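Hi, here's the filled form for the chain we discussed.

Project: internal
Contact: R.S.
Residues: 148
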Amino acid sequence: MEKQDRAILDLVQTDATLSVGDIAEKVNISKSACWRRLQKLEKDGVILQRVALLDQNKIDLPLTAYISVCTNQHNEEWIKELQQVTELIPAVLEVYRMSGDLDYLIKAVVKDMPDYDRLYKKLIKANFSDVSCSFVMETIKQTTRLPL
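And the returned structure, exactly as it came back:
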């Protein structure tokens, strides 16, 4: 990846609403060259999507939960079941298969404890052997910007 591509990526990670002209000017290339580079970065899957980041407190989802999951079932069929269950729950933002003491880590956002309880009752349909949850009390750093 060229230096200009990294500069373009750094800019769009900071502000995806920048016009091609603004990006081209900041990277010091022509608009058409910038547009071609952006198209290639999207085609190659480097840029996955351009989105707006929302303030979860202002949309009444102030509670972030990290749910640790252990299972006795380590097979493709169970993983597909977990995917199906979590895909149907909009509050589930991220699901990771982990190394170490836990098998899966799930990040979710909810309104309050009763909302978390409803989420929990949907999640356990995936037949876990152990579930524990930690709630975020304060966010110290949060970013979607990858270091380039």
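Let me know if anything looks off before we file it.
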